[in-house]
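Please fill in the sequence for the structure shown.

STRUCTURE ENCODING:
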C-alpha cells in the first residue's frame, strides 16, 4: 500500500456570527481532480445497438489493474461493476477510443465473476489494445482496513464518485461526471446495510446517487496533520498524546485571541489520496405514504434520501483474489518470465530485462 500524498497549505478564514462576533476557521482547498481519472469510467448497456445509441438505461463501472510480478511495467486489467447490473443483463461495455469515438466490448454474463459472499460487485478480465483510451486504478490505491486505521478515515472525509449521468451521459462518447460528498457512516461487517432484500457491508456517503451511477468508483480524500516526510510519520504525530481541550485566553493588548493548546500548530496539513473507497451500489430510498386529501391511499412514493451505499474496496480486493483469477495471473506471469529469459541482447547473452 503506497497511496499518493499531496501537501496542501491551509489558511485561516475570518467569519462573523449573526451577532457580529468574529471567529476564524481553518480552510483547506479542494484538490484539483485530474481530467484523466474520468477515463477509468466505463458504461454498461444491454446490447451493442443500445450502447451505440446511448440509450438512457444501464449503469457504470470502472477499470482496475494488478501489477505483474514478472514485469512491473505490465499488469492485468479488469472491468468492475455491480453484480445486480450483470444479473439484469447489462453486459455490453462501452469504452472511449483515442479517436474521440467509442467502441463496445461484449462481456457475457456467464463470464463475469461474483463475490462468493454475495457482495454487490462483479469482475471481468479483459485486455484492451492500443485503440482504447483508458485509465485503470491500481490496487495500490485501494482502501483496506489497515489504511482506514492508519489514516483515520471516517466521518466527514471528502469523497467523490465518477460515473454516468443518464440525462447527459454522452451519445458519441462517454462523458462521465463527478459528484462530491462526505462519508456519513463507515463500513462495519457486524452492522450491514439493508438494501433491496439483502444485507451488504457498506459505507454510507452523503453523495446523491441516482439511476445510472450504480457501479461508479468512489474515491476518498483525507485531510490530515502533516509533520515529517511521509504520511506514516504524520500518523505517528497524530498518535502522540495531545491535550484534548483548548482554553480561550485573554489576548495581550492589541493582540488577537489566543488558544493555549500546549503544543505548536504544525505548519502544513496533508491530503492523502485520492484512494479508492469502494463501488457505488445505489441510493438508499425513503418511502412516503400517499394521501388523497386527508385519506391515506394504498400507494407509496419513493424519494431519494441523498445517501448512497458503497461496497468497500477491500471487498473488490477479495474478489480479485478469487483462486481462478490468481491462477490465471500466475500462468501469464510464468509465460512472461520465460519470454523475458529468452530475450537476447546484442551480445547474444540471454538476460532478464529489469
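FILLED IN BY: designer on duty
SEQUENCE:
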Amino acid at each position: 500500500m503506497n497511496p499518493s500524498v499531496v501537501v496542501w497549505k491551509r489558511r485561516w478564514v475570518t467569519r462573523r456570527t449573526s451577532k457580529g462576533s468574529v471567529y476564524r476557521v481553518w480552510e483547506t482547498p479542494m484538490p484539483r481532480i485530474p481530467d484523466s481519472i474520468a477515463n477509468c469510467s466505463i458504461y454498461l448497456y444491454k446490447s451493442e445497438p443500445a450502447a451505440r445509441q446511448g440509450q438512457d438505461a444501464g449503469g457504470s463501472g470502472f477499470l482496475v489493474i494488478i501489477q505483474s510480478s514478472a514485469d512491473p511495467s505490465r499488469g492485468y486489467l479488469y472491468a468492475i461493476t455491480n453484480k445486480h447490473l450483470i444479473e439484469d443483463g447489462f453486459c455490453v461495455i462501452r469504452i472511449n477510443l483515442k479517436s474521440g469515438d467509442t467502441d463496445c466490448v461484449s462481456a457475457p454474463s456467464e463470464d463475469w465473476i461474483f463475490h462468493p459472499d454475495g457482495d454487490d460487485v462483479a469482475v471481468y478480465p479483459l485486455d484492451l489494445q492500443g485503440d482504447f483510451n483508458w485509465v485503470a486504478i491500481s490496487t495500490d490505491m485501494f482502501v483496506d482496513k489497515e489504511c482506514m486505521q492508519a489514516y483515520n478515515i471516517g466521518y466527514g472525509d471528502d469523497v467523490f464518485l465518477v460515473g454516468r449521468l443518464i440525462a447527459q451521459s454522452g451519445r458519441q462518447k462517454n462523458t462521465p461526471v463527478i459528484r462530491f460528498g462526505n462519508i456519513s457512516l463507515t463500513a462495519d461487517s457486524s452492522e450491514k446495510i439493508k438494501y433491496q432484500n439483502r444485507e451488504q457491508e457498506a459505507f454510507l456517503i452523503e453523495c446523491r446517487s441516482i439511476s445510472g451511477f450504480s457501479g461508479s468508483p468512489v474515491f476518498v480524500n483525507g485531510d490530515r496533520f502533516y509533520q515529517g516526510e511521509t504520511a506514516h510519520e504524520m500518523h505517528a504525530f497524530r498518535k502522540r498524546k495531545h491535550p484534548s481541550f483548548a482554553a480561550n485566553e485573554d489576548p495581550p493588548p492589541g493582540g488577537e485571541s489566543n488558544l493555549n493548546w500546549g503544543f505548536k500548530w504544525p505548519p502544513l496539513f496533508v491530503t492523502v489520496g485520492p484512494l479508492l473507497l469502494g463501488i457505488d451500489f445505489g441510493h438508499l430510498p425513503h418511502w412516503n405514504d400517499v394521501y388523497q386529501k386527508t385519506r391515506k391511499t394504498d400507494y407509496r412514493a419513493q424519494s431519494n434520501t441523498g445517501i448512497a451505499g458503497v461496497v468497500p474496496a477491500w471487498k473488490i480486493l477479495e474478489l480479485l483474489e478469487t483462486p481462478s483469477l490468481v491462477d490465471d495471473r500466475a500462468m501469464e506471469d510464468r509465460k512472461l518470465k520465460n519470454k523475458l529469459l529468452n530475450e537476447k541482447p546484442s551480445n547474444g547473452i540471454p538476460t532478464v530485462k529489469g
